[in-house]
Amino acid sequence: MQSFVAYIITALSGASEAEATSGLLYFFVGSLGSVVALLGLSISYLQTASLTWGLWPFSSTPSPLVTAGLLMKIGSGPFSFWVPIVYSAVPLITLAWLTSSPLIGLITKL
User: Fold this and answer.
1) Domain range for residue 17?
2) Helices in the chain by DSSP H: which ranges?
3) Angle of helix 17-48 relative to helix 2-11, nearest 10 degrees?
4) Which residue among 19, 53, 97, 107 has its CA within the 20 to 30 Å range from the CA of 91?
5) What are residue 55's phi and psi, to 5 degrees?
């Protein structure tokens, strides 16, 4: 749910075409990352035929698709091609919200 708000704020943060393009890119890459991660989870389920994995869902070996999807969602590793494009087109206040809100959510969850 937080992702949809971030996509909308990124696309509507200004009136320029670059900001709308960066919002669409942010949406497409985030959606692609979710699809890849869900595909990896479904393949993992097909292999194990169980949803109970114990303490950590991927205790034996994590699926490369799940890892790639999550790395794409956070903009890390070789999947960071979209980060400079999106972050350079949005205003500073939107950039501050995009980079700090996931961290605040993570800290409050811990």
Assistant:
1) 2-109
2) 2-11, 17-48, 64-74, 83-89, 92-109
3) 160
4) 107
5) -65, -50
Name the residue type at position 45. Answer: Y
pTM: 0.73
Q: For the chain, how many structural domains are there in total?
A: 1
Instruction: Identify whether the C-beta of residue 24 lies closer than 8 Å to the C-beta of residue 11.
Output: yes
Taking CB atoms within 8 Å and a gap of at least 24, the contacts of 62-70 are 64/40, 65/36, 65/37, 65/39, 65/40, 66/36, 66/37, 66/40, 66/41, 67/40, 68/36, 68/37, 68/40, 69/33, 69/34, 69/35, 69/36, 69/37, 69/38, 69/39, 69/40, 70/33, 70/37
